[in-house]
């Protein structure tokens, strides 16, 4: 006797999966038809094992994979057929192998979630989480399309924030280079000239020369080793936070930074709210929705918060009460959740919260890109003006005395 895994639909249109023993595939089909089932997929469980999984997908490849799975789900065609068609059309070698591997897994009766779990190293964890969450709904294509759209929106916002941060950092770097050039090359020449002529200089000039002397001593003189030691300690601290504390520790560190800290926390809250809204909208129970959200979001701190929330909700508490107990998610999320609970529309309230957080991120990014550079330029201009005036004031006094 052979063993087969099947996927079929009953007379009410509900999907049925299971295993059956039969002499051959035709015998298995006859048995299933005798039970009133329409066979969709039938796989011999005694067949050869799956080939090695594909190499790990990039973020772009993973997004294309999710988009194709969403299209297959919306088209209501057998998953293995749709995946093989996607593999035939794909020009990306890694993506082609991934589609073929998923198709072979579904041919063998495995669900997409099972194939992704068996080969987690080949697929980004949040992609496997997105597909796992969507497969638990009654409409794979619609749910996955909603989740993918939000994922793309958050990716665009992330790049907008990065570009908004890079420009001010470049301006600050240029300002620092100008400052060091003045302190190390220009001011020392004037300071030596003032000393040789024994000129009485104003307090502003004296302060500027003292700052220049300190910079020379710290960067070029006997104290340069102290400066290098401090730099190495700072680099080591960042290394520890990034690689020893892990992604969760690094995100918490970024969350405390001025200007960008709120953006980091709001992006995690927006992803949490949107994912939960979609899952609850498709009638996934609250504790299970929190567990699926934990697997599907990128932010490790949000993942930990989801697991904490799932435990609290499973113990009979409301989501708003557990959120109030503290955690990584911002407190401003609580009023939205409580309002949704009171009015019986928690998915709608969470979608509104996600939109609010996304708008906040956009406003903060616009602030960084439009206001920060002019402010920095103003301070740079004032600094250069102060240096020029401080250096030329003694010379003007000398010229005035000669006249």
What does this structure look like?
With 403 residues, the protein is mainly alpha-helical. The protein folds into 3 domains: 2-44; 59-150, Receptor-associated Protein (Up-down Bundle); 154-403, Type II secretion system (T2SS), domain F (Receptor-associated Protein, Up-down Bundle). Helices cover 73% and strands 6% of the residues. It has 17 helices and 3 strands. It has helices at residues 25-34, 59-75, 79-89, 93-107, 112-118, 125-135, 140-196, 203-219, 224-244, 246-255, 261-281, 286-296, 300-314, 319-324, 333-343, 346-370, 372-402, and strands at residues 2-9, 15-22, 38-44. The chain has a 3-stranded antiparallel β-sheet with strand order 2-1-3. α3 (79-89) packs antiparallel against α4. The chain is elongated and about 110 Å long. 32% of the residues are buried. The model has no long low-confidence stretch (mean pLDDT 79).
- Number of strand elements: 3
Alpha-beta content class:
mainly alpha
Compute the gyration radius: what is it?
Answer: 31 Å
String of helices and strands: EEHEHHHHHHHHHHHHHHHH
Low-pLDDT residue intervals, each spanning 5 or more residues: none
Largest sheet: 3 strands, antiparallel
Rough outline: elongated
Question: What is the name of the CATH superfamily of the largest domain?
Answer: Type II secretion system (T2SS), domain F
The total number of structural domains is 3
CATH topology tier name of the largest domain: Receptor-associated Protein
Spatial arrangement of strands, main beta sheet? 2-1-3
Mean pLDDT equals 79
* Fraction in beta strands: 5-15%
CATH class group of the largest domain: Mainly Alpha
Distance linking N and C termini = 116 Å
């Amino acid at each position: 006797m052979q063993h087969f895994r099947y996927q079929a639909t009953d007379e009410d249109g509900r999907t049925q999966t299971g295993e059956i023993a039969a002499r051959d595939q035709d015998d298995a089909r006859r048995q299933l038809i005798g039970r009133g089932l329409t066979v969709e997929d039938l796989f011999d469980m005694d067949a050869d094992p799956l080939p090695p999984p594909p190499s790990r997908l990039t973020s772009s490849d993973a997004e294309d994979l999710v988009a194709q799975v969403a299209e297959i789900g919306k088209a209501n065609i057998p998953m293995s057929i749709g995946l093989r068609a996607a593999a035939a059309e794909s020009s990306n070698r890694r993506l082609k192998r991934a589609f073929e591997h998923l198709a072979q897994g579904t041919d063998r009766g495995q669900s997409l979630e099972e194939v992704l779990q068996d080969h987690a190293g080949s697929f980004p964890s949040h992609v496997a989480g997105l597909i796992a969450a969507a497969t638990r709904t009654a409409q794979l294509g619609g749910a996955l399309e909603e989740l993918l759209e939000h994922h793309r929106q958050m990716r665009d916002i992330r790049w907008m924030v990065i570009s908004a941060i890079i420009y001010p950092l470049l301006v600050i770097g240029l300002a620092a280079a100008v400052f060091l050039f003045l302190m190390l090359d220009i001011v020392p020449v004037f300071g030596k000239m003032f000393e040789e002529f024994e000129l009485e200089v104003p307090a502003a000039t004296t302060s500027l020369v003292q700052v220049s002397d300190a910079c020379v001593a710290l960067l070029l003189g006997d104290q340069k080793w102290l400066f290098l030691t401090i730099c190495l300690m700072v680099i080591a601290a960042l290394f520890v936070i990034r690689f020893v504390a892990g992604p969760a520790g690094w995100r918490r560190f970024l969350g405390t930074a001025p200007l960008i800290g709120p953006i980091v926390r709001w992006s995690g809250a927006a992803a949490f709210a949107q994912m939960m809204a979609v899952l609850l909208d498709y009638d996934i129970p609250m504790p299970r929705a929190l567990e699926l959200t934990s697997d599907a979001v990128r932010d490790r701190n949000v993942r930990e918060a989801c697991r904490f929330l799932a435990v609290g909700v499973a113990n009979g508490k409301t989501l708003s009460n557990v959120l109030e107990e503290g955690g990584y998610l911002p407190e401003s999320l609580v009023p939205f959740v409580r309002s949704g609970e009171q009015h019986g529309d928690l998915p709608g309230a969470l979608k509104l919260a996600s939109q609010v957080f996304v708008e906040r991120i956009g406003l903060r990014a616009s602030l960084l890109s439009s206001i920060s550079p002019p402010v920095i330029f103003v301070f740079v201009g004032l600094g250069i003006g102060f240096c020029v005036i401080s250096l030329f004031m003694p010379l003007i006094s000398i010229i005035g005395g000669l006249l």
